[in-house]
UniProtKB/TrEMBL annotation, chain A:
It holds the Pfam family GST_C. It is found in: Cytoplasm. This is glutathione transferase. InterPro entries: Glutathione-S-Trfase_C-like, Glutathione-S-Trfase_C_sf, Glutathione_S-Trfase, Glutathione_S-Trfase_N, GST_C, GST_C_Theta, GST_N_Theta, GST_Theta. Residues 1-82 form the GST N-terminal domain. It comes from the Eukaryota. Belongs to the GST superfamily. Theta family. GO terms for biological process: glutathione metabolic process.
Length: 239, 242
């Protein structure tokens, strides 16, 4: 039985997984969990991931949540090329360092922009708050400064000369604000250059494919949320 | 030049690194970075960790931040016993799964209790209304429920029958509220039992030693706060008080 990956490409960590699996020719069954239709709240999916989040993996009887855990699991099980998670102790530590740091910085702040600009309006039926968006953008700006100063510096990729899980996890997160019309790459030439390198290392076609949904995220007023999902999101998005 | 670990045992992830190194007899120099004295903002420390946070590691010219990265680096370099980060692919994945989820669920939420009850009053001279603490405790309760339901279940430890990095990272975080009098183990027998098992696996003496500072935090009422530190923290404090 083939590995099942439960994904919605609206989600950044799902994109990382999708790209990683495709790039490495890892055979998997794409199980579409449509977030905007509340599929992740269904009992059926709850059996795969009791946390009711995507991405999730099912490999026979083994289920796994958390994109980083899944990426590492796949890299080990399918023996992917070394550069993704280098066997060199220090290089590997630098990948771990980024993967750890990013949760409450790049990921959190990137998400906040998406939530402020797209999700909250969808749930409450009102236009987004410009003050809240500005706050979210400023927070991401701080994180981006640290990203460039500490993690990227003058290197082609976060860890040395080749793409790793660190770059992959970073790029999908940074595409989320882009998808909502906040071009965080504007006026950041070093970041733009890094992005081009990452896109090329992944393969432009695969990168585009993975990002098609987020880059075309529909106008909120045209998407119908189920009442259960709306309630669930209202609770989740409480300020 | 040997391994240097830059720590303040007030910090949860520092305790995890400290306990791990001590338990595994990893030789290191304890470089005390006193947070209350704002030592993490000094230029000298900035050369070790530009993010100005503890814990940090220096091994020769190699520097490393982030406790998870440091723990994994030490486990590999010093070839620590398998149970800490099992070589079995699925068990290892379970440790990774917890370590990832931990960041935005247990970490931060447990630590907020220290801010609300001790640090904000210490830095601003203001006490916060009880609702603020209740809010934090309610949020933490949700995460603890998920912790018990998904990660612990009916197992002695998060991954099987032995302690791993997952348990270590979790326990040090959950001791933060204990230090300020929020006994999150009360009325949670399963969690309590797990805590005892973790303490025993670590060694009670080492566990106590690592937690001495946080368990006596209330006695720091008269501590001198570095004025520059107050300045640095001002925006964060304003945000937390909203």
């Amino acid at each position: 039985m083939v590995v099942e990956l439960f994904l919605d490409l609206l989600s950044q960590p799902c994109r990382a997984l999708f790209i990683f699996a495709k790039k490495n020719n890892i055979p998997f069954e794409f199980k579409h969990v449509e977030l905007l239709k509340g599929h992740h709240l269904r009992e059926e999916f709850g059996k795969v991931n009791v946390l009711k989040k995507v991405p999730a993996l099912k490999d026979g009887a083994f289920t796994l949540a958390e994109s980083i855990a899944i990426l590492l699991y796949l890299s080990r099980k399918f023996n992917t090329p070394d550069h993704w998670y280098p066997s060199d102790l220090q290089k590997r530590a630098l990948v771990d360092e980024y993967l750890s740091w990013q949760h409450t910085t790049i990921r959190e702040k990137g998400c906040k922009i998406f939530i402020t600009k797209v999700l909250v309006p969808l749930v409450v039926g009102q236009p987004f708050s410009p003050e809240k968006l500005e706050e979210a953008v400023e927070e991401l700006n701080s994180a981006l400064k640290q990203f460039e100063e500490k993690f990227l510096q003058n290197k082609p990729f976060i860890v040395g000369n080749e793409i790793s899980l660190a770059d992959l996890v970073a790029i999908v997160e940074l595409m989320q604000p882009v998808g909502c019309g906040c071009d965080i790459f504007e006026n950041r030439p070093k970041l733009v250059e890094w992005r081009s390198r990452v896109e090329e290392a992944v393969g432009k076609e695969l990168f585009q494919q993975a990002h098609e949904i987020i880059l075309n995220v529909k106008n909120p007023s045209t998407t119908q949320l189920s009442p259960e999902l709306r309630e669930h999101l209202k609770q989740l998005l409480k300020p | 030049m040997g391994l240097e670990l830059y720590l303040d045992l007030l910090s949860q992830p520092c305790r995890a690194v400290y306990i791990f190194a001590k338990k595994n007899n990893i030789p290191f120099e304890f470089k005390h970075v006193e947070l209350f004295k704002g030592q993490h903002y000094r230029e000298e420390f900035g050369k070790v960790n530009i993010l100005k946070k503890v814990p940090a590691l220096k091994d020769g010219v190699f520097t490393l931040a982030e406790s998870t990265a440091i723990l994994l680096y030490l486990s590999r370099k010093y070839n620590t016993p398998d149970h800490w980060y099992p070589s079995d692919t699925q068990k290892r994945a379970r440790v990774d799964e917890y370590l990832s989820w931990h960041h935005t669920n247990i970490r931060g939420k447990a630590g907020k209790t220290l801010w609300i009850k001790v640090l904000i009053p210490l830095f601003t001279g203001q006490t916060l209304p009880p609702e603020k603490l209740q809010e934090v405790m309610d949020e933490l309760a949700i995460s603890l429920k998920q912790f018990e339901e998904k990660f612990l279940q009916d197992k002695p430890f998060i991954v099987g029958s032995e302690i791993s990095l997952a348990d270590l990272m979790a326990i040090v975080e959950l001791m933060q509220p204990i230090g300020v009098g929020c006994d999150i183990f009360e009325d949670r027998p399963k969690l309590s039992e797990w805590r005892n098992q973790v303490e025993e696996a670590v060694g009670k003496e080492l566990f106590q030693e690592a937690h001495e500072l946080i368990l006596n935090i209330k006695e720091l009422g008269n501590i001198q706060i570095d004025p520059q530190l107050k300045e640095h923290l001002a925006p964060l404090l304003r945000k937390m008080m909203k």
